[in-house]
């Protein structure tokens, strides 16, 4: 059956929407997601504690917010942060890469660009919410942010490093496209773009799982959905990438073989003419 790009796009978009709804509205929805510490690390607020309505009152886990800190709002922001980051890392970034490999010609290129730009915008929003949460939550007695807590800070630090890497990804992509279109060969920009994207998204998916594990309020159902969807999408993404690289390798070998036969024919023909 011939490949129909519009049906492929429709199916991927449908998968994205359905998975997002499952993540957002599964059992126990309403308080999990994003980064928050578990019981062993020290939860920085407890939405179920009526005494934790603002940052001026210390909660039963030993952490509090800055002045003006609203626990209900922070809980909501944390939840939205997790949904946005998961949507970008688990779905949009990998799907954008897959579409580049499975859709023909410029259709695949445009779909790739649209999905990656959308994913980057969503991830920027997730990072913004994460920075806000880190800025308003304080460890009591020391008046320092969560970045000073080694039991928690690895999640936002990884997220910020990835944020910096993903900001340069569009530039690397444009340089790769312009150079490849001109010489039909991968350059340093190409390898940087591929490495930055594949490794960065993989680490981002893992960091999302770390964020869920830090959350007291993330239900086991939501964690399982994240793990399953992330694993399936990542494996599919890697399979498509490997198959595409194998096809590319075989195509180049075939082109080199044909070029060698053509050059040999020219040499033989020239020698016979000389005789």
What would you say this structure looks like, in words?
It comes from Podospora fimiseda. Residues 1-24 form the signal peptide. Its main location: membrane. The chain has one domain (5-243): Four Helix Bundle (Hemerythrin (Met), subunit A) (Up-down Bundle). The chain is 72% helix and 1% strand. 32% of the residues are buried. α2 runs parallel beside α6 (220-274). The protein is elongated and about 75 Å long. A two-stranded antiparallel sheet has the order 1-2. The longest helix has 55 residues, at 220-274. The N and C termini lie far apart (54 Å). The protein is an all-alpha fold and 275 residues long. It has helices at 5-25, 71-102, 105-136, 154-183, 188-214, 220-274; strands at residues 64-65, 137-138.
Question: Which terms summarize this structure?
Answer:
Four Helix Bundle (Hemerythrin (Met), subunit A); 275 residues; elongated; mainly alpha; single chain; 1% strand; membrane; electron transport; signal; 6 helices
The biggest beta sheet, please? 2 strands, antiparallel
Terminal-residue CA separation: 54 Å
- Give the count of structural domains: 1
The helix count comes to: 6
Q: What fraction of the residues are assigned to beta strands by DSSP? A: under 5%
Low-confidence sequence ranges = 20-63
Compressed to H and E, one letter per element, the order equals HEHHEHHH
Overall mean pLDDT: 75
GO cellular component, one term: membrane
Signal peptide: 1-24
InterPro entries: Cyt_b561/ferric_Rdtase_TM (IPR006593)
Domain Cytochrome b561: 44-249
């Amino acid at each position: 059956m011939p490949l129909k790009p519009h049906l492929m796009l429709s199916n991927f978009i449908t998968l994205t929407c359905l998975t997002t709804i499952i993540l957002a509205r599964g059992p126990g929805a309403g308080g999990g997601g994003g980064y928050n510490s578990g019981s062993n690390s020290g939860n920085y607020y407890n939405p179920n504690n009526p005494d934790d309505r603002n940052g001026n009152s210390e909660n039963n886990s030993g952490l509090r917010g800055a002045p003006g800190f609203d626990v209900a709002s922070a809980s909501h922001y944390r939840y939205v942060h997790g949904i946005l980051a998961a949507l970008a890392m688990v779905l949009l970034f990998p799907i954008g890469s897959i579409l580049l490999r499975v859709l023909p010609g410029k259709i695949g290129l445009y779909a790739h660009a649209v999905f990656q730009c959308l994913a980057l915008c969503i991830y920027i929003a997730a990072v913004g919410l994460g920075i806000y949460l880190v800025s308003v939550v304080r460890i009591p007695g020391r008046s320092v942010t969560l970045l000073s807590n080694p039991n928690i800070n690895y999640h936002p630090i990884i997220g910020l490093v990835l944020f910096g890497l993903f900001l340069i990804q569009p530039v690397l992509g444009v340089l790769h496209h312009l150079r490849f279109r001109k010489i039909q060969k991968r350059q340093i920009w190409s390898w940087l773009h591929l490495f930055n994207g594949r490794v960065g998204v993989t680490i981002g998916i893992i960091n999302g799982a770390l964020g869920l594990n830090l959350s007291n309020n993330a239900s086991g159902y939501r964690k399982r959905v994240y793990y399953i969807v992330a694993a399936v999408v990542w494996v599919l993404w890697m399979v498509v990438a490997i198959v595409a690289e194998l096809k590319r390798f075989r195509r180049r070998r075939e082109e080199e073989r044909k070029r060698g036969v053509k050059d040999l024919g020219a040499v033989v023909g020239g020698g016979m003419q000389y005789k």
